[in-house]
Amino acid sequence: MVHPKFNQGEPLSPWREKLNEVIFGAETQLGKAFDVVLIVSILLSVLAIMLDSVSSIRLDYGKWLWRIEWFFTIMFTVEYIARLVCVRKPLLYVKSFYGLVDLLSVIPTYLTLFISGAKYMLVIRILRVLRLFRILKLAEYVGEANVLIRALTNSRHKIFVFLYTVLTLVVVFGSLLYVVEGEENGFTSIPKSVYWAIVTLTTVGYGDIAPSTPLGQFIAAAIMIMGYGIIAVPTGIYSAELVRAYTGKENNEACPTCGQSGHDYDADYCKYCGHVLEIEEESATS
Amino acid sequence: MVHPKFNQGEPLSPWREKLNEVIFGAETQLGKAFDVVLIVSILLSVLAIMLDSVSSIRLDYGKWLWRIEWFFTIMFTVEYIARLVCVRKPLLYVKSFYGLVDLLSVIPTYLTLFISGAKYMLVIRILRVLRLFRILKLAEYVGEANVLIRALTNSRHKIFVFLYTVLTLVVVFGSLLYVVEGEENGFTSIPKSVYWAIVTLTTVGYGDIAPSTPLGQFIAAAIMIMGYGIIAVPTGIYSAELVRAYTGKENNEACPTCGQSGHDYDADYCKYCGHVLEIEEESATS
Amino acid sequence: MVHPKFNQGEPLSPWREKLNEVIFGAETQLGKAFDVVLIVSILLSVLAIMLDSVSSIRLDYGKWLWRIEWFFTIMFTVEYIARLVCVRKPLLYVKSFYGLVDLLSVIPTYLTLFISGAKYMLVIRILRVLRLFRILKLAEYVGEANVLIRALTNSRHKIFVFLYTVLTLVVVFGSLLYVVEGEENGFTSIPKSVYWAIVTLTTVGYGDIAPSTPLGQFIAAAIMIMGYGIIAVPTGIYSAELVRAYTGKENNEACPTCGQSGHDYDADYCKYCGHVLEIEEESATS
Amino acid sequence: MVHPKFNQGEPLSPWREKLNEVIFGAETQLGKAFDVVLIVSILLSVLAIMLDSVSSIRLDYGKWLWRIEWFFTIMFTVEYIARLVCVRKPLLYVKSFYGLVDLLSVIPTYLTLFISGAKYMLVIRILRVLRLFRILKLAEYVGEANVLIRALTNSRHKIFVFLYTVLTLVVVFGSLLYVVEGEENGFTSIPKSVYWAIVTLTTVGYGDIAPSTPLGQFIAAAIMIMGYGIIAVPTGIYSAELVRAYTGKENNEACPTCGQSGHDYDADYCKYCGHVLEIEEESATS
Question: Smallest CA–CA separation between A144 and chain D, in Å?
Fold first, then answer.
């Protein structure tokens, strides 16, 4: 596992090194157990927050949910302090994405002691669900997640071009329906009509706003068929990117011996002539 | 066909062997005929259960449906006993998935003689629809189903990472809409708002709950476009996996020299150690 | 173009041969023009039928639509007779799919002279829209359509397994919701609940029936996410099949000289050693 | 960058050449900055138009929005004139797609001085959103967009065959539901029923029209499952096309001996005539 920036540097004292391994790593037995406990705790505390928002449940079990919330808040606070103690560059950690999420998942509970407005606090607290992504550190998932993210990163320009086109289409078609259908049919403004066009193009189709004039329905049908076909574009982009990643055809370097390319990304030897692909491993050839 | 665990072992007496071949196998003419009759019986009995739940039909034909149900129940009971008789390890069969489904598809009808609560029995009885998967044993489908299942199994980690991300997104966005829209617009609790976010992200879009404030609609539009794009991820994963299966990227034979696998279908030399992969072409190496 | 069965056999008299070429073929200038005129006529007559079903239009222009309908009916009748005259085996043509569609597209109009029940006739008449598929005979489309159809045919077993699984899932989940939600929430019978499950799993989501209990919504959310992921399966099957068709990796025959396979479907020479792949073209090698 | 037709020809006077480079090009620092400023201006002016259509905002800020609109209109007019001045063939530019869009984005504002009917003008003005596609000229996107567009262009025949089939299906199924459900259930005419069929097949599912008879719901369920499966077709087409583009199946170099192209990226010998494809490996031929 590549250590994040805030965890690189000179060795720590033995007990801090050990703590670091458990909290930030997932290679040791203990480190993995820590991650599993953490994930279960996050899931339980998020469940408690969700149940707390159901008024009938809050009436009956509010007190218990309040205790659970404080139990997890204190637990996460201790964990946050432990992270600060055993990390090499605490300030970098605090300013990192996970550092902020870790802080945001404990602060709101303390704030409710001083400030009212529980509802907004509720939502900030629920952001601790983002801590769940720590699971991707586990050995089973780290490779898989990396492939998915790399494929997304590689196709980000194409996806941007796609979104750009989609947004332009919904602005044009939304405005068109605004004129055709008019305010009496629910298309009260261009932003609302664009919202309708997005609901339609993405095939969500709530039905809260729907065209009722023949011309409006005709244009809507055109948008639907367009949306039905356009979904092929991001899917095609992503599929092709993953196929490329799987078939490893990204390695464009030719074999220095026979000059052939098309080797896998993880190939050490030319699959056509059997010679080493990279000079560093020359000695490996017989 | 690979025999399931409960059917492996020493030979049975001739007539039990014969019965076993007919009931569990699909290679012989009789074994195939048995499967087809079974599948038609299951379909008919499930249809009868479904019609039985329509009150107007039950009023007029309830007696007939009751007779049909008993006819199939007795037939399936006889079949179940026959399976027990001819299988090598009856206990293992009883505890296997299909053994349980076979039992569950006859028990509820007998129970209705003693217990009321027909509605719940109805649903347990309908689980006999799962027996239909026995069709996948038939020669035409066993290969195809295996490819599909293997591709799913190979991509299970990636699909888990995907579902994980989707569930995190719906929790975050559902909570956001809960705060933005509030109880007066139908977003009465976080669980309900998360339900709405799932309905939206998956592009189902019932419309029973829909945002009505401009900010809520703006966030909803973002979720829709996200959901419209995100569907590319499982599709891409599965497509790439199947492409790999089709184009024979799964050449599972290991290199005779270094023992590593994962070679291309058209590779002559091990891409890890550079030795020839097949003995017949030894002379090609320098 | 491969001639259909009813058009194979001994040569016809010159003028019938000529007519045959124009009506059934698309290779000659006249044959292509005939197809284009036919397609435009079909489109216009279908449009007339559609407009005829709009009550306000029928009131105002009913007489004109009636005339147009008779104009096209007589035109299509003449065409049908011409087809009978110039085809080699008229009886085989009459019984072929297109022969039946051609007949069905003129019969209903004559029947309306004797029988009332115009509504049912309307729908039979509209089946003439199926004649539009004759366009696929045109040079630009025949190849493309063939690839699409072949890919569908190749994956028909896999698609059957997929549909089978989907139908089993909707029966199980539909029945579950029937018990959980009950008749008071619109889930009045198992068939209706299965209909709801299909509406949900396919992400259509009308919203005419929607779960309203928390447990029902929870199960519904599971179905949605399942449906959202399951769509990857047919898409993956079809994409992989087309990728295989495109990359032509279906040619499993090895090169007789160097023994390597993986050649394109349209390759005449081994791409690895340059020798001919098929014995018939041996003389082409230097 | 390939210059459009209206910008090819003899060199211009130095200052016009410079202006041309800034306005039409994106290679120089200044040219890129110009494009970015233009895109931001377009976005802001489109936002102003959208807000202007919200009646509550127009009441409060109408005057400001009117000033913003005139500011951008004059700015775009100056830009349009500058384009006319520095382009080599102004007339060709005026008649080009972007030339028309550029003109359409300023004309309506001037027309509002003489003509009323602001609503229609609003929609024409919003077409300036199409100018945003100029961003695709930027270096980061030009390549990506080209791949996407080329893949679409290559598969246009297949997509046409697909749309053709979809439209035929919705006409047939729409008419069927029109007869089955009838006017009392909202299926008041064939066009409306076809509209419903499109809403259903594309999985949009507004729910404004929904079948209520058992037979109607059965047919609707069939359409949904069909639509759920059919979406695999455009996605498969586009994915396969992109995979082909990615894996270098587009090696467009022709064989130096027989002149045919379409060779694999890793082919050494022409698969049509068996001669070596590249001169460097001549010695490899026997």
Answer: 21
